[in-house]
Amino acid sequence: MEKVVTECAVHHALPHPRTPGGHDSGPVDAPTTIRSVPMIDRAPPALPRAFPAASEAGVVRPSRSRAAHPEELASIPWLTRLDDEERARVVADLRVVNVEAGELLCRIGKPVTYWFGVIDGLLKMSNDSAIGMPITFTGVPPGGWFGEGTVLKGEVYRYNIQALRASTVAGIGAGTFHWLLDRSIGFNRFVMTQLNERLGQFIAAREIDRLARPDERVARSLAALFHPLLYPGVGDLLRITQQELAYLVGLSRQRVNEALAVLQAAGVIGIEYGGVRVLDLPRLRSFSAS
Predict the structure, then answer these.
(1) CA-CA distances (angstroms) from residue 201 to 3, 197, 238?
(2) pTM
(3) CA distances from 121 to 78, 99, 129, 171 (A)
(4) What CATH number has the domain bearing residue 145?
(5) Strand 104-106 relative to strand 237-238: parallel, antiparallel, unpaired?
């Protein structure tokens, strides 16, 4: 049976993993008082005009999965930590799916079957907006692997994972994940680092929620997406639109634009065609509007 990476909401559609032996948004607009320097060939795709709530979002179709291309395998940060046998097992098990903007990859309440990572695009992790105020826990940019805690515990998802833009996502079965934990020191170290850094990220997210000043909220939220260990695929340039950032921060697009202008004027970021470049990450993390 063909193995597929698909959203966790349609568990019945997934084969059992192998066990061990909103508005249109163009590029980030440069504030009218600050000149931007276009350096990216093209802007990220725009969000759909009616971006769906997670409770109303469509799901990824299993038939869209495929094997990974060589360049996609090369972008997986932990693959180089494996020996030849381990790598062969992963490459045989790993599947890739293209997720459209607004689609769900994982849905609250469904059992975990895969461990996922973002090859390209941008995802958001959120609560169930159908039963309360919508809360975005974090964004997941390129290079980010997520959900290891859920895979370790073998429990159902307590969050939704939704694509903010067209994204390419890879995944390995939970069985392969546990098989690697049982035999690979390098893989164990990667997962331990993930768990430790993720804990710090969520502690910081609680602090962000308590910040009253929008400029500081935008600064901290941006800094979280430039995490070199959790999101090594980002580097110093994050492809993101104002509307996507507004969805993650919980502010209007207009207010995000004003905050970006303040941060650029302070010299901590540079606004470029289709993205934001970090110029001083320590200052961005500790930015104060006072």
Answers:
(1) 32, 6, 18
(2) 0.78
(3) 19, 9, 23, 15
(4) 2.60.120.10
(5) unpaired
Name the nearest CA neighbour of 220 among 287, 289, 290: 287
3 within a domain of the structure (yes/no): no
Give, for all 290 residues of the chain, the pLDDT tens digit. Answer: 334 334 344 333 334 444 444 444 444 444 433 333 333 334 444 444 456 776 677 777 766 889 999 999 999 999 999 999 999 999 999 999 999 999 999 989 989 989 999 999 999 998 866 666 777 888 999 999 999 999 999 999 999 999 999 999 999 999 999 999 999 999 999 999 999 998 888 888 777 767 678 999 999 999 999 999 999 999 899 999 999 999 888 889 999 999 999 999 999 999 998 899 999 999 999 998 76
Is the CA virtual torsion 114, 117, 120, 123 positive or negative? positive
- Which pair of tokens denotes residue 138? 């974090």
Cβ atoms within 10 Å of 252's Cβ, excluding its own: 13
Q: Let me know if residue 96 belongs to a domain.
A: yes
Tell me, yes or no, whether 40 lies in a domain. Answer: yes
Question: What residues make up the domain containing 90?
Answer: 8-285
